[in-house]
Amino acid sequence: MSRFTRRQALGTVAALGALPLIARPALASTKIRLGALRFTSHAASFVALERGYFADAGLDVELEFFQAAQPMAVAVASTDVDYAVTAISGGLISLAEKGAAKVIGGSLSEEPGIDGQKILASNDAFAAGLTDPSKLDGKSFAMTQAGSSFHYMGSKIAAEEGAELHFKPLQKVGAIIGALKTSQVDAWSIVPHIAKPLAAGGSAHIIGNVSDYLPNYQVTTVFTSTKNADQERGQTEAFLAALSKGVDDFNAALVDKTLGEDGADEMVKLIHKYVYADKSLEDATPGIVNGAMRLNKNAALNLASVTDQLDWFKSEGLVKDSIGIDTLVDQSYVDII
């Protein structure tokens, strides 16, 4: 297959409308680029890098940070980034249909009993009566782009509440936060490490939980180029095995809390290098701890949730109706939940 260029990948996205694995060691110091967001939910990547798990697997990993899911999908498809962790988007699905990208695992999940993603209302909308999701009808809802996970979550919430939402694409999470703080948008859904500080600081109100509408939602996945999935199996298995060690450390420290206060403090300090790095450790700690949702052990994937997402994208006409789950997911790499 010929190299899928960034221009081709961007064109595809624009057309939307804007296990445990026993890894065969990769070649020593194989350089790879890993796409991430500066979210607590991406902590497994930070842990695997900082604690040498990638290096032990023979991988010299460089992190490249993004501000939305779809540009990350473009970067993977064009091989500017080798692997990435983020939400499924219409762009990723369409790039998979083009033979350029594959989901190879799961990452962040909603899980019963663990505080997850929140539904937020702006101060003005809350004062005007948007005090719970049943009152969303006619309101504006923020998303990065059409076909983003925010679009999916908002649509699912609205469908269950019988509401009609006006989606507002703002391209970047930072822009959405600014719009919510100034009441330029009425509502949004986001991970708790962002939602809770916004609410605690008086910038927005938490009015519901995403898990009430999408239980066991596979929020983010691990994906790579089809070339890596097909032709670099040893490297890809080594990457997943090292990442999974980071997952285990994170879950033990901040989700299951089996490592005590010292273990939790050490994990927060590590994550703080990448999340809320512009704040003091003391100020950043509550936000980091509040973002401690479950990461999937061994990069296991909730295939039912991914299938539901794919079906929604098809029903909205955001991707081709002919795309099947095997087009999107290379199941040879993953444990299926």
UniProtKB/TrEMBL annotation:
Keyword Signal among UniProt keywords: yes
A biological process from GO: alkanesulfonate transmembrane transport
Pfam families: NMT1 (PF09084)
Key words, A-Z: Signal
Domain SsuA/THI5-like: 40-249
Subcellular location, record wording: Periplasm
Residues in coiled coil: none
GO cellular component, as recorded: periplasmic space
tRNA-binding found in the keyword field: no
PANTHER family: ALIPHATIC SULFONATES-BINDING PROTEIN-RELATED, TAURINE-BINDING PERIPLASMIC PROTEIN
Family membership noted in the UniProt record: Belongs to the bacterial solute-binding protein SsuA/TauA family.
Protein name (database record): ABC transporter substrate-binding protein
Organism for this UniProt entry: Pacificispira spongiicola
